[in-house]
Amino acid sequence: AVVTAAVALAPAASAQANNESFVTLVDVSAQRALIADDVAAFKFNTGGSIEDPAREQVLLDSVADQSTQLGVDPAVAQAIFRDEIDGNKIVQYGLFDLWTAHPELTPTEWPDLTTVIRPELDKITTELMDQIKATSDLQVAKNCGEQLDAATNVVEQRRNLDRLHSQALHHALARVCHS
Ligand SMILES: C=C(O[C@@H]1C=C(C(=O)O)C=C[C@H]1O)C(=O)O
């Protein structure tokens, strides 16, 4: 009876493990989209531009470096990060619009971009790179889209994402599945 139970559990356990591996990637992506609130608060209140192409290039160069170190395809990782960056900017533009229309909703405190927020984003880059490596088989699996959608639903609910962050998250994950 013990052996039968173990055999019966094996497929479910591995399916769950597969799903769980996308859940972490999606959750870190959600954290990245949520940090955009702090970026937007800093930039809106200090008159900064949402777009910083030089910083984006530094980030994409670092992604290429880390890809080589991890044995991940740099083109795959850079495509994902291109989408992560654009997703982040979707949140920033959305909040700029909101705060322009409703100045009373503008945050009155915000962390510093250079010394606090970007170091947090750099940490997330490392975590995302680990997850891109960890899910490399899933990314080319036939049911990748289903698994990614399932993980995205779990994270959206757990983190109670609003429409803006949900839209950003979907954008950020658009090229996770590839063949
Ligand atoms: C998050 C920022 O805003 C934009 C988005 C970036 C990102 O998602 O990493 C990088 C540079 C900016 O174009 C930032 O300036 O750090």
Would you summarize the structure shown here?
The protein is mostly helical and 179 residues long.
CATH topology: Chorismate Mutase Domain, subunit A
**Main beta sheet:** none
- Indicate the multimeric state: single chain
Class inferred from helices and paired strands: mainly alpha
Cα(first) to Cα(last) distance is 41 Å
Please count the beta strands (DSSP E, at least 2 residues each). Answer: 0
Poorly predicted tracts of residues:
1-19
By CATH reckoning, the class would read Mainly Alpha
What would your notes on this structure say?
With 179 residues, this protein is an all-alpha fold. The protein has one domain: Up-down Bundle (Chorismate Mutase Domain, subunit A), CATH 1.20.59.10. 79% of the residues lie in helices and 0% in strands. The chain contains seven helices and no strands. The protein has helices at 2-46, 53-70, 74-101, 113-134, 136-139, 144-158, 163-172. Helix 2 (53-70) packs parallel to helix 4 (113-134) and helix 3 (74-101) packs antiparallel against helix 7. The model is unreliable at 1-19 (pLDDT under 50). The structure holds the ligand C=C(O[C@@H]1C=C(C(=O)O)C=C[C@H]1O)C(=O)O. The site of the ligand C=C(O[C@@H]1C=C(C(=O)O)C=C[C@H]1O)C(=O)O has 11 residues, from helix 2, helix 3 and helix 4.
